[in-house]
Write a structure and sequence with these properties.
By secondary structure, the chain is an alpha/beta fold. The chain is 34% helix and 22% strand. The chain contains twelve helices and twelve strands. α4 crosses α5, α4 runs parallel beside α6 and α5 packs across α6. About 6% of the residues have low confidence. Bound molecules: adenosine-5'-triphosphate and magnesium ion.
Length: 320
């Protein structure tokens, strides 16, 4: 469904009194990813590692600085807005915060039908479709006349999902889509997403911080650190046999994870350090890694397949 080949996004920061040189931020650094049709790829990593930037690149809301994006085997990297129009409806996003992502002055009906109007559909068909979508996301069709503030957080997120589904997308990007919901509502929305996936054969890119949630919904998981994918594998393989030192720390720090007891103080301190220069030539985890060697400072490890379907970007997978 989706393939990214060495996709990067650099930002040039303005000069300031404190930093007179123009700094370059590698928000996304040479990312290779693949999502198969009908599957869910979970994308995890600490705040600021580039997850949303990657989502925006896939949606073509921002242009990558380098690399290629393929959607259903067609390269979309350099398509103009006009050329991309037909494909745009196939890739949709649900954002984290239903409070700010839904326009407060628009009714539910207007919110859901907005993407349909962009494709010049007839009014009667649009009205019908809105009702159908509300039912599909488990809401009463009478909710169409409500404003976002007249809905609960969970209902609002369902409206966000209905809106994303309006154009019959094939790839849905869920950027922290359940993070702002309480646990029971989160579970309901996750189950709704699973049902919708099997009903409409949807493909998901599921971005989240909660590793339990990611484990529940994903088929494969990619771990991102400072703009790079450091490990990717099938969900059970990754959670049971994590190979990258960063993945291990991430999994060990899961509150409900039984291995939390094994988390040593050094490891949690490592995650808090953010001292690696951004133009670093070596591994993105070098400064934090207690297994690092000379090579790690000088060379970026490629994402190599260490087992069928298990990809790792590390020079010392065995000894770790
Ligand atoms: N327009 C921009 N200009 C400069 N830097 C940017 C811009 N957009 C994002 N960044 C930087 O790129 C990095 C990645 O940001 P991004 O929003 O993708 O992180 P994230 O992984 O989604 O974080 P979170 O989990 O907190 O949502 C951050 O360091 C951010 O400050
Ligand atoms: Mg984000």
């Amino acid at each position: 469904m989706l393939r990214l080949n060495k996709v990067s996004k650099y930002y040039q920061l303005n000069k300031s009194f404190i930093s007179p040189l123009r700094k370059k931020i590698k928000a996304v650094d040479s990312v290779c990813l693949e999502i198969k049709s009908g599957e869910t790829l979970g994308l995890v990593g600490e705040s600021g590692c580039g997850k949303s930037t990657l989502a925006r690149i896939i949606l073509k809301l921002i242009a990558p600085s380098a690399g290629e994006i393929y959607f259903q085997d067609q390269e979309i990297t350099d398509l103009s807005e006009n050329q991309f129009r037909a494909l745009r409806q196939k890739i949709q996003i649900v954002f984290q915060d239903p409070y700010s992502s839904l326009s407060p002055r628009l009714t539910v009906k207007k919110i859901i039908s907005e993407p349909l109007q962009a494709f010049k559909q007839k009014k009667v068909l649009i009205a019908q479709r809105v009702k159908e979508l509300l039912i599909n996301v488990g809401l009463n069709p009478e909710y169409e006349n409500r404003l976002p503030h007249q809905l609960s957080g969970g209902e609002r997120q369902r409206v966000g999902i209905a809106r994303a589904l309006a154009t019959n997308p094939e790839l849905l990007i869920l950027d922290e889509a359940v993070s702002s919901l309480d646990l029971s509502t989160q579970a309901q929305v996750l189950n709704l997403l699973k049902d919708l996936q099997s009903k409409y054969k949807l493909t998901y890119l599921f971005i989240a911080h909660n590793l339990d949630v990611v484990r529940y919904i994903s088929d494969h998981v990619a771990v991102m650190y400072k703009g790079r994918i450091v490990e990717q594998a099938g969900v059970n393989q990754l959670y049971e046999n994590p190979s990258h030192p960063y993945t291990k720390i991430l999994l060990n720090s899961m509150p409900s994870f039984e291995k939390k007891l094994l988390l040593n103080k050094n490891q949690s301190a490592i995650l808090e350090k953010q001292i690696l220069p951004l133009d670093n030539q070596g591994c993105c985890f070098y400064a934090q890694c207690n297994k690092a060697q000379a090579q790690c400072a000088e060379e970026k490890p490629e994402l190599n397949q260490i087992k069928l379907g298990h990809w790792l970007s590390c020079f010392k997978p065995k000894e770790i």
